Amino acid sequence: SLAGVILRMKTLGLGDVVGFPFIDPPSTRLVSDGYQLLAELHALDEQGRLTEIGKKLGKLPLDPRIARMLLAAEQQRCVNEVLIIASALSVQDPRDRPMERAQAADEKHKLFADERSDFMGWLKLWRWYEEQVKHKKTNRQLQTLLQDHFLSPRRMREWRDIHGQLHAQVAELGLRENEKDAGYDTIHQALLTGLLGNIGFKSDDVKARAKPGEGNYQGARGIKLSIHPGSALAKKGPKWVMAAELTDTGRLLARTVAEVRPEWIEAAGRHLLTRMFIEPHWEKEGARVVAFERVSLYGITLVARRKIHYGSIDPELSRELFIRGALVAGEYDTQAKWLPHNRALVQEIEELEHKARKSGVWLDEERIFRVFDARIPADIHNGAAFEKWRQQAEVVNPKILYLQREDILGEGLGADHTLFPETMLVDGVACKLKYRFEPGHPLDGVTLQLPLYLLNRIEAAQADWLVPGLIREKLTALLKLLPKDKRRPLIPLPDTVTAFLSVAKPGEQVLTQALAAYIRKKTGTDIHPDEWSGEFLAHLKMNFSVIDDSGQELACGRDLAALRQQLGGAARITYGGGAEDSEFERTGLVEWSFGDLPEQVKFKRGGRELVGYPALVDNGESVDLRLLDTADAATGETRRGVVRLLRIALAAQFKQLDKDLSRETALALKFRNFGSADVLREALTKAIATRALMGDDDTPRKLKEFDKQKERAKPRVAVVKQALLRDVAEILDLHAQVTARLNAKPQFTAAMRDETSHLAALVPADFITATSWAHLRDLPRYLRGILKRLEKLPASEVRDSRGMASVLTLQNKFLARRSQVRGELPLALDDFRWQLEELRISLFAQELKTPYPVSAKRLDKLWDELARQPLV
Q1: 769 inside domain
Q2: Is the overall model pTM greater than 0.85, yes or no?
Q3: CA 149 to CA 159: how far, in whole Å?
Q4: Per-residue pLDDT reduced to its tens digit, 41-91
Q5: Domain that holds residue 731
Q6: Beta-bridge partners for 117
Q7: Terminal-residue alpha carbon distance, the chain
Q8: Does 159 share its domain with 10?
Q9: Helix axes 677-689, 631-649, angle to 10 degrees
């Protein structure tokens, strides 16, 4: 093979194969394949230099794969067995299988089959053959016996000859033969060293995602393969396999196959492994930093999640986590007196901060970190090393770990930053700030260059506070927008700004909310959000320049909500997609085959460490594992994704449910104005699945939790189905009654118009799935409320008009604000929507009762609070 030629040239010092003057030089692809094989065999290092193994292989005049197996065989003490198998792999298969007698040949060959390994089958055949040779009477008799067993006498002799040659070469090189018969494990661990590129992994996930004609095993570098039907393992199909060769016959087939274990692969391919570490954290019990390791070879996961000591992997980060966890947070077990001293001091400062409530007196953990960072040596990142250093250091300075007040107290507002910083930290990423002082220009003021993947991560409140150099001007401008009667108690305005900044916590709230709260506390005056909406200088609003990974601007503007409306979806999709070697980007999952689902993980993107939120995204027939950019988005998607996985897991039960629902012809007839029977069946199935499979239960994040949820959900399906069918039937009946009344000869036009639009919003075409379970059960009462109102109209037109005016005033405010929302309504806004329904009951159908007190005055007050909350 060319790999052997390359190895021999390296051993003899003949230089690179590419520059060698071959009469018929090999192609670039063949050369690349040769080098790749030698790297796989650990004959070459990353720089293409011979390793110690490579030097040994170079002395063996054998195919590099065979030579690698034999070297490993000596270590595993199975040279005898591997010699037999290696010589078998070097000749044509001696077994005959004539087409006209295929069944008879298969029966005879069963004598040599091994259900776990075709390689062991070669050993069985060899030992049988040696026994026959030993006891033969004549060569003719032996030949007849071989032919009766559908074995080629000539190829058997060739095998024996090759074995003799290999045996002589091995003996000449001093490889020791084993005195005892080797077992299955050691033989296959030795063989694996030469066959790492021919491994395969089977899971239901791989099988489900396989396209027609593809294999049901995931192979190296993304290939799909199947076990050759002639293998003894073809029917059994173990989870992990290795093969002597892969042949492409339209399908990629693995020949001469054996069952192996992932830990054998990990040991044999240690030099080729890809390791990913997630969730590094300080562990108090072990007094060390640990993380979870994911190990893969050629894209195949060998270890999904294994806790490991992280200190030797990333000493710098481990040291930081050690200092923050053990020393700053005090998560450390020790009898030394410095720790209780420091804890008492921190508690004292927290109490002072709580009482003082003024700028410049707060607990600053970063300052504490810097103190310990300066005192602790750079190589300390665990409890054992720390204790050894501490005992020596305290001899020189007994108080070296004792904190003082000045170590803990932060500095005054703005003291840690320049007035106009060059960057702003967004989710831990330093994003560039650009300044332009050109009134009237679109870029006047400060512009934040925001990578697309951080668009949904930045807090509106953070951007609203701009930078220290502009905040006083912005506050003054806001105060000048207030009406004179509310502005007068705040004069002089500069003093009010200074007083506000002395107690404010920048970035915790949108600036107008924080300022309104301060004014309310100072003067007792409420500031309505509309009072900040006058003409405002553009440069006092943050300008956002959204850029892609190459730095190209995608959009620019000062309205963060509008930018998210435009690009928020793209930001969410691209957030985790740029992760380096992320294990949380998988598609087509049909079972819980991905280990635990943490609430958040750290990953690297463009060299920066970010926090992502793993989510299961429903794709209809399967789910995708994605890293999303916000916890809320991940939570919502994951609950829907878990429902999908549970539906797949309970496929038989949902198949029966589908049959049951298809028999609901009476209900389908009532539903005909909303959609077809198929639409109804799908909506009912979705609503039943959402309520029965998850309902109000906690989201499972582990396989055990998922399995428990499945068992919990099974019996609920029938119960939820009956309740839903009953509720939907009642809703449709009442909807028909309301519709009939509204379609009658119109009177009281304003009220009829109001209820027509109200009915369309209350019971839309997708009401079964669009309405939450709790509110779906309220729809009948709301529909009866409409009927009651229509009954009363002739006798209470004036009173109805007053009530309608109250409702429409609040409803119009709600609709205007809802139009600004992208995606799902915030919980508070959705709750307000349903309180409007209760208000209608209290005004137009009091006899139906409301579950809680409600009035236009109460909702006015609630709306004022909602209006102060940001939508972004």
Answers
A1: yes
A2: no
A3: 17
A4: 999 998 889 999 999 888 888 889 999 999 999 999 999 999 999 999 999
A5: 650-786
A6: 258
A7: 63
A8: yes
A9: 110
